[in-house]
């Protein structure tokens, strides 16, 4: 059996009770930290999880940090190995801490998602994709908010080292809110130059989130332009671009806004706000 066990967003104690029970029964533990940041030394994992002397146990275990790891699942099944997932908190549901609704129940008792997800990648001199903007535009047209997961570059090789076969890696890079905002504003200018209708502006209400963990997390709300100069602290950063805002969401966002408040919001009806 191959287990995929989420570690959660905090320290080693954020693993679930179920996950911890399984870890302590496993013969091998693989810790994957490529897709996120491990906030504590690996020695802490071994000591707390009780796996330092786990060779006597029977099962095999894989401990990813984030994502569904579909490739590993498919490889396991092709090899005749069964798998089991033990879930935990992730940024996908923890974003509710900023006050925006992850889902909403309509009068017809239909539950719809209120936050859709896109990824914003680092641009290079020769590669400047704008496809994530198209998804943001579609979301804002429909009403949901957009959670933007910002790029991570870990264990990346320069083209020179890659071509020479040298295992020399570039320093890790974690996209900040400001970097993502700068790319978005450039796309908006490109849209203006082409005479296209804009999905958002520099005055669109956004939320900046950093290190979303109970002890140290940072949340700021305001316009895109305002948040570009806001210090969110260390990585990892995320960005939420608002869609239609419910009055309760507006009240919650004011808890995280600057002294000027969210003055860009205007009421259009009894329950829906737009920037």
UniProtKB/TrEMBL annotation:
Full protein name = diphthine methyl ester synthase
- List residues binding S-adenosyl-L-methionine: 9, 90-91, 150, 237
Q: EC number(s) on record?
A: 2.1.1.314
Task: Report the Pfam families cross-referenced here.
Answer: TP_methylase (PF00590)
Task: Specify the domain of life of the species encoding this protein.
Answer: Eukaryota
Q: Which GO terms describe its biological process?
A: methylation; protein histidyl modification to diphthamide
Methyltransferase as UniProt keyword: yes
InterPro entries, from UniProt? Answer: 4pyrrol_Mease (IPR000878), 4pyrrol_Methylase_sf (IPR035996), 4pyrrole_Mease_sub1 (IPR014777), 4pyrrole_Mease_sub2 (IPR014776), Dphthn_synthase (IPR004551)
Q: Which organism is it from?
A: Cyprinus carpio (Common carp)
């Amino acid at each position: 059996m191959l287990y995929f066990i989420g570690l959660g967003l905090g320290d080693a104690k954020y693993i679930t009770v179920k996950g911890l029970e399984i870890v302590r029964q496993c013969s091998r533990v693989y810790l994957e930290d490529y897709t996120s940041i491990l906030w504590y030394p690996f020695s802490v994992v071994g000591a707390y999880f009780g796996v330092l002397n786990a060779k006597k146990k029977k099962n095999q275990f894989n401990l990813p940090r984030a994502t569904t790891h579909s490739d590993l699942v498919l490889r396991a099944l092709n090899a005749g190995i069964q798998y089991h997932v033990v879930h935990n908190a992730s940024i996908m549901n923890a974003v509710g801490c900023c006050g925006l609704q992850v889902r909403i129940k309509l009068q017809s008792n239909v539950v719809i998602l209120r936050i859709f997800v896109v990824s914003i990648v680092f641009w290079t001199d020769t590669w400047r994709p704008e496809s994530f903007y198209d998804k943001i535009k579609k979301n804002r047209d429909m009403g949901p908010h957009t959670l933007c997961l910002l790029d991570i570059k870990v264990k990346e090789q320069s083209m020179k080292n890659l071509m020479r076969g040298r295992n020399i890696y570039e320093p890790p890079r974690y996209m900040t809110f400001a970097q993502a905002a700068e790319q978005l504003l450039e796309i908006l200018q490109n849209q203006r130059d082409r005479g296209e209708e804009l999905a958002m502006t520099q005055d669109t209400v956004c939320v900046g989130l950093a290190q979303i963990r109970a002890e140290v997390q940072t949340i700021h709300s305001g316009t895109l332009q305002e948040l570009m100069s806001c210090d969110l602290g260390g990585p990892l950063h995320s960005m939420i671009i608002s869609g239609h805002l419910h009055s309760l969401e507006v009240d919650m966002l004011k808890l995280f806004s600057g002294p000027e408040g969210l003055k860009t919001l205007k009421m259009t009806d009894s329950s829906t706000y737009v920037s």
